[in-house]
Design goal:
It contains nine helices and no strands. By secondary structure, it is mainly α. Helix 1 packs parallel to helix 8 and helix 7 runs antiparallel to helix 8. It starts with a helix and ends with a helix.
Length: 208
Amino acid sequence: MLEYLLIGCGFAFAAAIQPGPLQAFLLSSVVQKGWQRTLPASFAPLLSDGPIALFAILVLNRIPETMSRILQAAGGIFLIYLAWASYKQWKQQTATEATTNDLVPRTLMQATTINILNPNPYLGWSLVLGPAVLAAWHQSSMNAVVLIIAFYTTMVTVLACTIFLFGTTRFLGSSGRRTLILISAATLAMVGVYQLAAALLRGVTAWR
């Protein structure tokens, strides 16, 4: 159970602090409305990811075991690629900032809509979370529940902290953003290596 708790928390943390459409929307909303009014939008993933998660799990549950292992390995490679991209961003001393012209903030529903149109949840559930949830379910239904709860609890918490920090400290300045990017790169790399190793181990076990 602990391994799935760590996977859920680690991937959620890395995903929450990666620059993307949702993060740009939230930070832009802080600039326009303040962090107090923006804070409820941190729950957007809970509203947007339900249909995405259900579709991914239903599809993945019907594919052959070999394809499932391939997707899990692809997810690990994808995470390692994201880790490398984050590391390069940190090395170049650049951190994506949202400006007031990125998106015009409105409501929690707008944040939810933005996340539905964001490709990251689809990639995450198809290549990482979906295979991980199914692997956890095959061991114990509680493992799958723990993984999902850990992921969304961490996701909402990190988004809420990001909103608060940006609203009260201008997001810790450039050095703080660079530190978070480096932590994100390390976390993505660790989860990616684990996913890839788990897929290879499943393949070796099945071959035997």
